[in-house]
Amino acid sequence: MRPEISAELTALDTTLTTIEKVLNPEEMETRVRELEAQASDPSLWDDPDHAQRVTSELSQVQGQLKKLLGMRSRLDDIPVMCELAEEEGEGDQLVEAELEQLREEISSLEVKTMLSGEYDAREAVVNIRSGSGGVDAADWAEMLFRMYVRWAEKRGHKVDIHDVSYAEEAGIKSATFTVHGDYMYGTLSVEQGPHRLVRISPFDNQGRRHTSFAEVEVLPVVEITDHIDIPDSEIRVDVYRSSGPGGQSVNTTDSAVRLTHIPTGIVATCQNEKSQIQNKASAMRVLQAKLLERKRQEEQAELDALGAGGNASWGNQMRSYVLHPYQMVKDHRNQFETNDPTKVLDGDLDKFLEAGIRWRMTQQQSQ
């Protein structure tokens, strides 16, 4: 075995051992047995909400345990692969390829162990709003919208689009959607903040460079146990016709719903479901998520005032995407960057997400 392969194997083994200490596969196996016993109880579905939580957690823990045990087995097989490669004179290409794949998978799992916040394991509601920059900002908001949807779809996560408000000339004023899957909130919450685009504007007939902004907000999906009760007297319900690009009507009935929480002025809308009842239910979930986030921020502000927390502000922009005069995407919090914005805007976000999660962990540890 070449010294560099041996060193890589040692480093990966150290990282995986640390992950195993955090995740504790023995406890995971015990939890799987407990959940399997609950899932086999004939009375489980007498309470559908509880049954859903049990089956969801069982699937999640089983999947994570299988992945963890599989990585350990593959890592332990590397020395045997090296011996076979030497005996058959095939070189170390297969070993290096397996090490590269394991390196990426172990790094990804290591990042997941950093998602231990109260809401990190939940699904995510994402809001995108165009900022300063006129029509370019609206176009930029739509580009971000596409980027996140592409990222989710490439990784097999279902996306439910609740509302898209189209701008008059091009792009969107805002979009709200849910990304389904375990740990989507913990993963995507590092994307929250202002995103800046610098490019030659396709809407400027003089071909000048423009800077535009869009804001990304990420919220955890509300669960029944959160107890976000909203009295009917605190909600104003407005119904209207759904509209598509350019303001055109896409529905001949008043099925779109806008909910306004009167005490706070927080608004949630949904127009993409087939009926007014469905749109109202979806809008209510988004409104509850926004109120839950407001509650979390207020609690965090109280802790910060007591000196128990840090400053969560990331400045005027958390990331810049430069398409002209050079090509670059740079995260201003952790300095991670790439010179291939085309891939990033097509949904290749994993390295930025990983860098953001690692940066957040470092910030939390330094507080």
UniProtKB/TrEMBL annotation:
PROSITE patterns: RF_PROK_I
Ranges where the Prokaryotic-type class I peptide chain release factors domain occurs: 241-257
Positions carrying N5-methylglutamine: Q248
Entry keyword set: Cytoplasm, Methylation, Protein biosynthesis
Database matches in InterPro entries: PCRF, Pep_chain_release_fac_I, Pep_chain_release_fac_I_sf, PrfB
PANTHER family reported in the protein's UniProt record: CLASS I PEPTIDE CHAIN RELEASE FACTOR, PEPTIDE CHAIN RELEASE FACTOR 2
Name by which UniProt lists this protein: Peptide chain release factor 2
The gene coding this protein: prfB
